[in-house]
Design brief:
Elements: E1 8-14, H1 37-47, E2 55-61, H2 69-82, E3 88-94, H3 104-109, E4 113-117, H4 122-127, H5 136-150, E5 154-160, H6 168-178, E6 183-187, H7 200-219, H8 227-238, H9 242-246, E7 250-252, E8 257-260, H10 269-272, E9 276-279, H11 286-298, H12 300-307, H13 311-317, H14 320-343
Parallel strand pairs: 1-2, 1-7, 2-3, 3-4, 4-5, 5-6
Antiparallel strand pairs: 7-8, 8-9
Helix pairs in contact: 1-2, 6-7, 7-14, 8-14, 11-12
Length: about 350
């Protein structure tokens, strides 16, 4: 098998709705509900015979998935017992608070990547993160040396708000210098909180900051880390926007419901029902799961027709920050292509 991005079949598992932080831009539902061991085991039994000729990308999501670290360990155990563990690419999306509490050697031994929610320096990261007197930035920074020594890859997801956008390029440099290998920018979109309204002034700053990052990216090889560049390289080939690309996967929710993408997590219970395609507990074979993936994910036109019915996606795809992100990344990609051709 050729381990390339296009060869992966992407699955997200929402392990829990628990989270110890209260980020003021986050509108994902919170509760004490977590995925049962039965649902987890059924999912990975099905995955063991799912697209045997392909690699599978599995992302553990939440809430804060490290709260349910035993479920992650159980998932890896099932894969080792029933399948070739080498065909799996595992990642955990985490706020980083519990990284000093878990068995990091287990992550290293099983080649599990971390996607850490961190917005830049200490002040920027704490701007929107509230909860229980926890300093998320310090927790993350303190564990980075051990991650490096164990060879664990750690990437960053940077949430950009009107309140932090003026430091975006400096924070980008800060995170690269800390050792983050891949940095993904996610502007705050379509929140119901009026505090996060983007003005013409903050949109102009966003564009200027992206332009600064583009110049840094093209000038210094050690800053080749902006994840959105690769997203937009793919977007230009597939004709998909940022929002649609991020949803190109199936998600198994905490209750076993199977959904297209993960943007359904921002919908209320009534709206969610429209995007539920099956229940993992009622699927009897991996072939049925493959048929679902082919129908809803591999078929680009059908996928778009489904995902663009999501009111959150519709609203976000028209948001001015997405337009700016698209324009700037497209421009940077063209410069990057020219730069690489000259280098070769």
């Amino acid at each position: 098998m050729d381990k390339q991005e296009g060869k992966f079949k992407k699955i997200t598992l929402v392990l829990t709705q628990k989270c110890m932080l209260s980020c003021d831009y986050c509108e994902a539902p919170k509760s004490n509900f977590s995925m049962s061991r039965d649902i987890l085991e059924k999912t990975f039994v099905l995955l063991s015979n799912f697209y045997k000729e392909k690699y599978i990308s599995v992302k553990f999501f939440g809430g804060e998935p490290l709260i349910e670290f035993p479920l992650i360990k159980r998932a890896i155990s099932i894969c080792k017992k029933l399948d070739d563990i080498q065909r799996y690419d595992f990642s955990i999306f985490t706020n980083g608070v519990l990284l000093n509490k878990i068995d990091l050697k287990f992550l290293a031994e099983n080649n599990i990547r971390l996607l850490i929610s961190i917005d830049g320096d200490s002040k920027t990261t704490s701007t929107h993160r509230k909860g229980m007197g926890i300093n998320a930035y310090n927790n993350i920074i303190n564990v980075l040396p051990k991650l490096k020594s164990l060879g664990i890859r750690f990437d960053a997801e940077v949430t950009v708000s009107p309140y932090t956008v003026n430091k975006l390029s400096n924070n980008y440099i800060h995170l690269v210098n800390l050792g983050f290998q891949f940095i993904d920018l996610v502007p705050v979109l379509c929140t119901t909180n009026s505090r996060f309204k983007w003005t013409l002034s903050t949109l102009r700053i966003f564009k200027e900051e992206l332009n600064k990052i583009g110049k840094i990216y093209l000038k210094f090889k050690n800053y080749y880390s902006l994840g959105n560049l690769w997203i937009y390289c793919k977007q230009s080939k597939e004709g998909l926007g940022f929002i649609e690309l991020s949803d190109r996967k199936i998600t198994v929710d905490t209750d076993g419901g199977i959904y297209i993408g993960d943007s359904f997590l921002l919908l209320d219970k009534r709206q969610r029902k429209k995007f539920k395609v099956r229940d993992i507990q009622k699927i009897k074979s991996s072939k049925i799961l493959e048929k679902l993936y082919k129908k809803y994910i591999d078929n680009k036109k059908f996928f778009l027709s489904c995902i663009l019915k999501n009111p959150f996606v519709i609203k976000c795809s028209k948001h001015p920050t997405v337009k700016i992100l698209n324009e700037e990344m497209g421009r940077i990609n063209k410069l990057l292509d020219t730069y690489e051709k000259r280098a070769n």
